[in-house]
TrEMBL record:
It comes from Brachypodium distachyon (Purple false brome). Residues 41-280 form the Serine aminopeptidase S33 domain. Transmembrane segments: none annotated. The gene is LOC100843515. InterPro entries: AB_hydrolase_1, AB_hydrolase_fold, Hydrolase_4, MAG_DAG_Lipase. GO terms for cellular component: membrane. Residues 305-314 have a biased composition (Low complexity). Residues 316-328 have a biased composition (Basic and acidic residues). The lineage of its organism: Eukaryota, Viridiplantae, Streptophyta, Embryophyta, Tracheophyta. Gene3D superfamilies: alpha/beta hydrolase (3.40.50.1820). This is Serine aminopeptidase S33 domain-containing protein.
């Protein structure tokens, strides 16, 4: 799984590139990367595992930009059935194949870098947290560490389908796997505190906003139970968990269970009181800044890198305005497609 990146955008303090690659099943997957300026040495590689129903290039753009500006090369891939990748939208026929696709692309990306000895980190959000943990267990000594943002180690009780629905799921997935009939609470309203971000997700055609498909819901439930029962106690890599104290989508108590259960010697849990699920994009600007400050400091310490240079408040305001304006341009492009 290799590619030559195209569609280069150079913003001065970072560059953005994207390309399609083929997975082992011949499906085209959308991939992208954010890179620091060429004049700035790369501290480490960061590989994004996005959440369910979202994608990398728009939804995770803020994460890619912030980390690239801090000196990290950031790689993302849209899962099958997600974002700009091929596959029925919102459909996860096999979580195992999804993880295999990520593993193959990430390994190929590492092999294609000028310095393959750079530290390599996973960054998984929500469902992507489960993806990151499974990638780690597939290659226990390959990854230098992981940042887990409100990881899906267990589906919160408030978001679980009723037990009767679960029974129907199990029986019907082989008959009507793609049907969108699973009743759930509105995840967007539960995940994103800021209304502007909710509106963005709902307006983004690359995000899946309908009811979960039968097989997808079953796979999410199956893998969350597998992670909870079989993976948590085997986690051995360095990790940072950041989780909102008022998260109603993924259970903060299970992040605490991961922290206490993992055999990792280097582990940290940051629980942010009153914050919600989407810590890196759906909170207030001040809250997002706090979370990224902690994430970048953790990465810097484990990359043997010096902290990113302090930026004046006026420069921060200019960058914030530039990023907001560029973000709006991206949304306008998406809306026209």
């Amino acid at each position: 799984m290799t590619s030559k990146y195209t569609g280069v955008v150079d913003e001065g303090n970072y560059s953005y590139e994207e390309e399609m690659v083929n997975n082992a099943r011949g499906m085209k997957l959308f991939t992208c990367r954010w890179l620091p300026p060429k004049s700035q040495p790369v501290k480490a590689l960061v590989f994004i595992c996005h959440g369910y129903a979202v994608e990398c290039s728009v939804t995770m753009r803020g994460t890619g930009v912030r980390l690239a500006q801090a000196g990290y090369a950031v790689y993302g891939v849209d899962y099958e059935g997600h974002g700009k990748s091929e596959g029925l939208q919102g459909y996860v026929p096999s979580f195992d194949l999804l993880v295999n696709d990520c593993d193959a692309f990430f390994a190929a990306a590492v092999a294609s870098t000028p310095n393959t000895d750079l530290p390599r980190f996973l960054l998984g959000e929500s469902m992507g947290g489960a993806v990151a943990l499974l990638l780690h267990r597939a290659r226990p000594s390959y990854w230098s560490g992981a940042v887990l943002v409100a990881p899906m180690c267990k589906i919160a009780d408030e978001m679980k389908p009723h037990p009767v629905v679960v029974s129907v799921l199990r029986a019907m997935t082989s008959i009507i796997p793609t049907w969108r009939i699973v009743p759930t609470a509105d995840v967007i309203d539960a995940a994103y505190r800021v209304q502007e971000k909710r509106d963005e997700i709902r307006a983004n055609p690359y995000c899946y906003n309908a009811k979960p498909r039968l097989k997808t819901a079953y796979e999410l439930l199956r893998i969350s139970l597998h992670v909870e029962n079989n993976i948590l106690k085997k986690v051995s890599l360095p990790f940072l968990i950041v989780h909102g104290g008022d998260d109603k989508v993924t259970d903060p108590s299970v992040s605490d269970l991961l922290y206490r259960s993992a055999v990792s010697q280097d582990k940290k849990l940051n629980l942010y009181p009153a914050m919600w699920h989407a810590l890196t994009s759906g909170e207030t600007v001040d809250n997002i800044n706090v979370v990224f400050k902690d994430i970048i400091a953790w990465l810097d310490q484990r990359s043997g890198a010096s902290p990113a240079p302090t930026t004046s408040s006026s420069e921060m305001e200019q960058k914030s305005k530039h990023d907001h304006d560029q973000h709006q341009q991206d949304l306008n492009v998406v809306a026209k497609q």
